[in-house]
Amino acid sequence: MTTETKKRNVWQQAAHLAEKTPENRNRYVDFLRAFSIIIVIFGHWLVVAPYIKNGEILLPDILSISPWTQWLTWIVQVMPVFFIVGGFSNSISWQSAQKRGEGYSVWFAARLRRLISPVLPVLVIWAIIGIIAKLFNADTTILQPASTFALLPAWFLVVYIVVVSLVPLVYRAWERFKLGSFWILAAAAILVDIGVFLLGWKALGWVNYIFVWVAVHQLGVAWQAQSMGESRKTLLWAFWGIAALIALVMLGPYPISMVSVQGEEISNTLPPNLTMLALGVFQGGILLSLEKPLRKWLSNLKIWTATVLINGMIMTLFLWHVTVLILVAGLALALGGIGLGIAPGTLAWWLTRPIWILILGTVLLTLVPIFLRYERLRPLPPPSTTPTWRLLLGALLFCAGLAILTLNGITSDNWLGIRIVEFTLPFIGAVFVGILSTSKA
Length: 441
Fold this sequence. Notes:
This protein has one domain. It has 22 helices and two strands. It has helices at residues 3-7, 10-19, 27-47, 62-65, 73-76, 79-99, 104-116, 119-135, 143-150, 152-165, 167-177, 180-197, 208-224, 231-251, 274-289, 291-297, 301-311, 314-334, 347-351, 353-371, 388-408, 420-433, and strands at residues 51-53, 56-58.
């Protein structure tokens, strides 16, 4: 990064990059990524409703308090959009790597560095919180669920890294079967759900993390290959997607909410089931039908600059927004519960949400410059080939440790106050991938 670039403010830097954007770049892909991350952030800030009742801090979710909001998750659950966008981007990236003569290890290493590096500071901060709480014998009753919730965004990365590791295979399947590769995966997901809900094989449901999300990923590959057709055809996809989703919810065992709700035995996302696949088809069809007019709209330099700006800090925003919510709620509690005495779901609660979001947004933007460096890594000097076995082992260790932490939290009742083995695994994985030995920009 040059001295001149450093002197520019963030908007000027984004505008500079926006002006240099090649004409053949599909800006709509970047817009969907940026728009989706904003939806995710606002969604989490609204769903979790910190509340003080009888002197006790509670963390209820608005979906269980106001059941009518569960229908809104059909719009704000945008995880399928991320996988569709990922399918598009990974398809282009993999094709480009092949044209340059780069093997799987070079391509996969670059992807892993971008996905793993920004996560490590989040883990470190929460480990420090756990250790300090243990040293001062603080009441950690709320700390364990808080750390679990703080790492919620990282759960997506666990799944996404697995899908990314399979890109050469799924792209080869696309080359051979085209859209048939999507339908094969969809059929496999159907069989898994039959086993789960009709035969009672609940553990089998975890396999759908592969079948469902790779299938949705294939829609992005199809989009990049221009195989989804014009807007009329994509609207047909949307129609069949929403029809399937309604049928599954109304006639099957699936709950209405497209995110997990406290107290519900069945979750549509943990693990994913056919509702997520139907939602992906519905959302993908709708969004692709809007591609032409929105690509024209994105030719506006200010709008495109805003898109570039968000994409330049997207991982930092994504990984830290829940921690910000917890920190602000904790500060409000320390100040006597200011702002936390309004019962969630009431008119007063809804009317104060813009203020709540404004406060959280301000705090989040103050943290971005601190941690953005872990998202913007310097490219490795050639040659930078890491053996494939090391990359796969590193990804496995990273995902295994992170998955456990996202399900159970970092804090623990042991002598140190954190889950030592689980916390260590992602860092060992990062070493295998070669991340911790590289410098940051």
